[in-house]
Amino acid sequence: MIPLILRELRLSFRHAADSTAAILFFIIAATLFPFALGPGPEILATIAPGIIWVCALLAALLPLDRLFGADYEDGSLDLLLLSGLPSYGVAFAKTAAHWLTTGLPLLLIAAPLAIMLRMPAQHAPLLLLTLLPGTLLLSLVGTLAAAITLGARRSAVLMPLITLPLMIPTLIFGCAAISSPHPKPALLMLAAMLALSLPLCPLAAGAALRAAAE
């Protein structure tokens, strides 16, 4: 599994356009809100966590189209499934590579961007604490959606339709943890959803990969 993750990282660095596009989309989309809502610090400070969460969610969807697509088109997916690594192991390696190349950069940029949107600086650690399981959940659910739509017509359209509704609970609890005076229950819900998705999403994605390869 580790060589496969390293292979995915090398490919991502070699073709860095997808990850770069996701990061630039995140920055540009978040900076559009002050132009639309005005520079008032009261409004921006209130909605800044929601802006960061929604923009990060949409930005992380961009590289998912190529997560399995390139391997499926050139036959590498068949070799990966025959390599001795279980199909859920292949899916988990793809999930880890997606988070390292997309989720982690978004996580690092989120705090400065939120402060630019007038969010109080003392809320930045809590924002990052919610985005950490949130980006992991997005990578897990996104990998599942990419595997389900692999080989389907208009998979680029189907993938967001599958991923976004499944991410609504994560979005709700992530924003609630920041706005609530008692963030612990929402953080525990995020941790519970991550604990549930960590084994189930790779297993389901592995089954979808086997079905697509057959």
Short synopsis of the structure:
The chain has 214 residues and is an all-alpha fold. Helix content is 82%, strand content 0%.
Give an overview of the whole structure.
The longest helix has 30 residues, at 87-116. The model has no long low-confidence stretch (mean pLDDT 88). The protein has helices spanning 2-14, 17-37, 41-61, 69-74, 76-81, 87-116, 124-148, 155-166, 168-179, 184-213. The two termini are 22 Å apart. With 214 residues, the protein is an all-alpha fold. The protein has one domain.
Features:
single chain; 214 residues; mainly alpha; 82% helix
Helices and strands in order:
Layout: H1 2-14, H2 17-37, H3 41-61, H4 69-74, H5 76-81, H6 87-116, H7 124-148, H8 155-166, H9 168-179, H10 184-213
Helix pairs in contact: 1-6, 2-3, 2-6, 3-6, 3-7, 3-9, 6-7, 6-10, 7-8, 7-9, 7-10, 9-10
Instruction: Give the strand content.
Output: under 5%
Number of strands: 0
How does the major sheet shape up? none
**What's the multimeric state?**
single chain
Roughly how much helix do the residues carry, as a percent range? over 70%
Q: How many alpha or pi helices? A: 10
Low-confidence stretches: none
Q: What is the total domain count?
A: 1
- What value does the average pLDDT take? 88
Return the string of H and E elements: HHHHHHHHHH
Secondary structural class: mainly alpha
Principal-axis shape: globular
N-to-C span:
22 Å
Rg over alpha carbons: 18 Å
